[in-house]
Write a structure and sequence with these properties.
The protein is about 45% helix and about 15% strand. The protein has nine helices and seven strands; from the N terminus they run αβαβαβαβαβααβααβ. The chain has a seven-stranded parallel beta sheet, sandwiched between helices. Bound molecules: NADP nicotinamide-adenine-dinucleotide phosphate. The site of NADP nicotinamide-adenine-dinucleotide phosphate has 30 residues, from helix 2.
Length: about 260
Amino acid sequence: MNDAARVLPPSLSLAGRVALVTGASRGIGRAVAEVLAARGAAVAVGYAAREDAAREVCDAIEHAGGRGVPVAIDVSDAGSVEAGIARCVSELGGLHILVNNAGISIDALLLRASEEDFRRILEVNLEGAFRCCKAAARHLLRAKADGRIVNVSSVVGEQGNVGQAMYAASKAGLIGLTKALAREFAGRGVTVNAVAPGFIETDMTADAIRGDRRDALLEQIPLGRIGTPADVAEAVAYLAAPAAAYVTGHVLRVNGGLLI
Ligand code: NAP
């Protein structure tokens, strides 16, 4: 365990827990993996294609005194999900915390949107989380009151956005999945929550928050800044911690006041 984790109050400590973060090779997922490791969890750093980037995240985790292992998980492929979760359990000794972060966005006005793009978005953002929950379920249920699922939804899933009907549908679906599983798993003490980030500075939003668009966006955000991956990671770490044992079926907004 790293030094920071050693001094945490027990209510925030993740010592002895194993976490899997999908899509942790960059962006929000990377920050989540690093914060969970800093709180004492051993972390499986999920990646779809960028093994080098996932290894770099693990190196950063180990450098800070934590434990991280790269695990290939393409959430759109059931076989890859099964194999990745099996690897996480065999290498790290169990699975207590599943963070369904992997996601893509394909933006288009409805008249230009294709069925193929819609299927792809659902396959990754919504079916991917469903698949991971299903494959991880018996391990999480075995973890009882230490078991956690945190789904990464979006402000767009709550309020919609022009040009993002496909993405919004996938992220609203994740909220439904969260609430249903919260009820289903509650009897075993396992909690299921979602975070709904606003605009966070990552590769995904690089085009949307460039130049003039950035100023227009900032005017809509009461806290006056674009969010960082660390802002979201802190919220996920709270939901994963013992401190949040009585919070389930909740959607925690991390959006600077963009939607209140
Ligand atoms: P990002 O920088 O584009 O990173 C996306 C991550 O997802 C990468 O690690 C990528 O892996 C992984 N990924 C993509 N397809 C995958 C698949 N089929 N299987 C497994 N992993 C896959 O995105 P981000 O901004 O960090 O977003 C992370 C999550 O937050 C997404 O669910 C996104 O919808 C949500 N979100 C983001 C914002 C925002 O403003 N950025 C706001 C609200 C919600 P590779 O590197 O291997 O390709």
